[in-house]
Amino acid sequence: MKDLNLKNLGEKITEAFINQNQFVFAKVITDLKNGDVSVGDWFNYLMCDPKSNPPIFYQVSSPFDMVSKKAPQHALVFQNGKCILQTSYTDYAAMRTGILDALVLKSLDVKQLSDKKVLICGAGKTASWSLKGLKAYFPDLKEITYLTTESKRSEFEDLAKTLGVKAHHTTDNNPSEYDIILCHTNTKDSIFKDPTLIKPGAILTGFISSTPYGEFCDDFYNSDLANILIDWDMNLPRMGFIERAVTNGKVKKEEIVDLKDLFKGSYVPKANAKYTLFTSIGTPIQNIALLKMLVEDK
């Protein structure tokens, strides 16, 4: 795995979101069965930059089997009839996801973190890249609190130490004292269930993968309480928590903002919102940015 400059990657991800209309995307999920029994599936993100001459094609694929429950990712890039890049992508996927925390905070005009109380939920690969991204964009960061039940505490604390950050472990999920809460877990149930406990002005992020709810329960998705941000408007049909909130009349669909508008600087948060909540379920746009960087660095 190449050691990429995180600020350069952040700039490329920001550019890719702003210019996303120049790319062509397709997502294919193939369910593989042995008779009537599902043995796994094959996930493919296909991306093309038609403005390149000749066009560049990107593929990120991930087989998932029902036995190991693992989904390793691999990436391929093609141009001019040749494969110009092939690489394991699992760690890169964690990198391009984790760095979004810093990009969102920066775009919401957060200037420094030394005067903020930061909580990171999780201690795995993506949480680790989130911490690295925070330190890259906010070098004044000196300490964070992290909430986890995982066994990776020593690894996470060692990483924090190398970054010059003091990491305090907690098992208390009371959010009321934190200015920033960044979530990268695989929880099957919501960690935070009462939006009235959130500190006024707080910024929350959640990255939902294996659960239909994520770390913040449905009550958090409320236009009267929050600025609601998502990663990509194309993901709205797959965001059940947003759909439920819209159906229940808690979220005004026209007030949902995606990263393109946030990164362009055309979005002004509602001043009367109690908190800002950003949610991501993953986009191919980040893949384009990271793979372009890997090709250029060859």
Structural account:
The chain has about 300 residues and is α/β, with parallel strands linked by helices. It folds into two domains: about 100 residues, no CATH class; about 180 residues, Rossmann fold, CATH 3.40.50.720. About 25% of the residues lie in helices and about 30% in strands. The strands form two sheets. It has an eight-stranded parallel sheet. Strand 2 and strand 3 form a beta hairpin. Helix 1 packs across helix 8, helix 2 crosses helix 4 and helix 3 packs parallel to helix 4. The longest helix has 13 residues. The mean pLDDT is about 95.
Task: Please describe the topology of this protein.
Elements: H1 6-18, E1 24-34, E2 37-49, E3 56-65, E4 74-79, E5 82-88, H2 90-98, H3 100-107, E6 118-121, H4 125-137, E7 143-147, H5 153-162, E8 166-170, E9 180-183, E10 202-207, E11 226-230, H6 240-247, E12 257-258, H7 259-264, E13 275-280, H8 284-296
Q: Can you say what the CATH homologous superfamily of the largest domain is? A: NAD(P)-binding Rossmann-like Domain
> What is the radius of gyration computed over CA atoms, rounded to a whole number of angstroms?
19 Å
How many separate domains make up the residues?
A: 2
- Summing up helix and strand content along with how strands pair, one would put the structural category as alpha/beta
| Whole-number mean pLDDT | 93
Counting copies of identical and different chains, the oligomeric state is single chain
In CATH, the architecture of the largest domain is: 3-Layer(aba) Sandwich
CATH class (first level) name of the largest domain? Alpha Beta
Describe the biggest sheet? 8 strands, parallel
Got a strand count? 13
Strand order of the largest sheet: 8-7-6-9-10-13-11-12
SS field, number of helical segments = 8
Q: What's the helix-strand series? A: HEEEEEHHEHEHEEEEHEHEH
CATH topology of the largest domain: Rossmann fold
Unreliable spans are none
Percent of residues in β-strands: 25-35%
* Rough outline: globular
Helix content: 25-40%
